[in-house]
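[#protein-structures] MJ: dropping ELMO domain-containing protein here for a structure pass
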Amino acid sequence: MPPPADIVKVAIEWPGANAQLIEMDQKRPLSSIIREVCDVVSRRQARAARQLLERIQSHGIDARLEALKELAKLSADPTFAAEFINMEGIGTLARLVESEIFLIDDNVTYCVSVETFGEMLAFTLTAFLELMDHGIVSWDLISLSFIKQIAGYVNQPMVDVSILQRSLAILESMVLNSHSLYHRVAQEITVGQLIGHLQVSNQEIQTYAIALINALFLKAPEDRRQEMASTLAQKHLRSIILNHVIRGNRPIKAEMAHQLYVLQVLTFNLLEERMMTKMDPNDQVQRDIIFELRRIAFDGENDPTGTEKRKAMYTKDYKMLGFTNHVNPAMDFTQTPPGMLALDNMLYLAKVHQDTYIRIVLENSSREDKHECPFGRCAIELTRMLCEILQVGELPNEGCNDYHPMFFTHDRAWEEFFCVCIQLLNKTWKEMRATAEDFNKVMQVVREQITRALAMKPSSLDQLKNKLRGLNYSEILRLRQSERMSQDDFQSPPIIELRERIQPEILELIKQQRLNRLCEGSCFRKLGNRRRQEKFWFCRLSLNHKVLHYGDLDESPQGEVPFELLSDKIPVSDIKSVVTGKDCPHMKEKSALKQNKEVLELAFSVLYDPDETLNFVAPNKYEYCIWTDGLCALLGREMGSDLTRSDLDTLISMEMKLRLLDLENITIPEAPPPVPKEPSSYNFTYNYS
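AK: finished. structure tokens for ELMO domain-containing protein:
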């Protein structure tokens, strides 16, 4: 007798097991079928967890090795992890590591090779990391003996690379996820030992070592961070990173770039205390610094006798130094930011680059044409601007790789950067023939010069100087004019009407481009991964635009990922909405690092039935706009990103110009002209006659 028409057989797949056929009654609610399937999967995962736990504790070395290998693979699955943890699996793994009893069981010692022992330990540490990463068990439960054992692997001079890598990752997670464990790890690991791991040729080990240094730096109490920075300076961390990482023979990978960026941010954040400290006008020590600036600038000229004459001379000198308050310049440093940091920068310039300081002050103090550049006011405002540009005081952005190699080329990189920029400001002031009324205009130009130069990623301070020389005031004006012309939007009524007519066509073109990009897919960092480890997931839209396919990857893909490798899917018809920023569920959760504005700007989530979410953090602003636009287009909603507006303006402008050229009967070739051949000889002469 044939089965009822409503009964169908469906194959169910899950990690680590063969597919199973189950009968499904199509009359039943989908939610009840899903619950039933989940129960089946949960029971199978529980059975698999129990069997693996038994095999891990078995007598045979080969059986243990295979069990640990399988466990390392399955631990990434949240359902399996929950079952294994409920059976005290993490405690079992921790005891294995603490006592190193991979080789001993029931007082019987098994003779195995060092390589086998290393493999077993590496798989154990991998499984431990994966299980802890699910957040089911608190890191605070980890024993001191386990910490000592893991720290011992890091401190050993010759240890297997895979064991060292996982040990560094475990210690980093301990520091980031537990305040009490930070103190324990800090007692077991010295900065000197970690710096030694930066001098190896393996970039992954270097990355994990810097990540652990960053974690210790980030979680250190505020009163200890400066002390830790001094220790890192004494151990020559900067020069080691410069020579063995930045200038090494291997290209910098994304994860290493992120760790260098984090270290750069944490280093600059040491300036925050001075930046937010107001000057006390009654503090004689602080006032003496201003006296020192005056003495260096005017070569210790003999002070006149008499209080009134001395006060009048000081007032005159402070005016020539460019302070706003000529009588009591200490009042200029009471605004935060930049607070006392501005005075620190000025003193550094005066003492380390004395000739430059004296030249800037004297050449402006001797001018009588109202074009003098007020050094004091400029230095204070420039310090505030540099703090904004480099985001001093901000927490690192989890998705940012924006480090600057030049800041690793000098022990006093911040101060030297200021010295380069104050000379730029003085030069730009003269080029603009500015007066006091033009102060804000000059600062806007200088900000543009600095940000454009930083975007070119100069590898040294000398390269920065060269970039800034090429960005003089005339060049900034030329760039501005060029950008205005490229964005020029003709405002005559016929052009406006033409624009309105072709806009729907261009919007449809942009929509198709966004959907095509979703079909190609993108790689994202795996969410919920606290440790610094390269783990990814991939998402792409089906070619018929009906299903979103996604799945985990072991490494960053090169090109498209086939649909067959993406095990999970969401029907587009089930998608209810797309939310962004702080409305995303994963942005409301606690994180080891506070989510700052930049992370929020890259976050978006797909909400779908039944009450499920797929959470994203885009690798950059471009991918964020592509995906949010594409998902909105998929749901029939308006694409409202900045990228859409920019693309719309560009494409409409190009289309209108092409149509206007067509009106003038100017033929536009179908193919570009051929590239001229390289001359066989560069020897030539010019005939002046």
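MJ: nice. Residues 103-111, 590-594 have pLDDT under 50 and may be disordered.
AK: one more thing. The CA atoms of residues 577 and 607 lie 5 Å apart.
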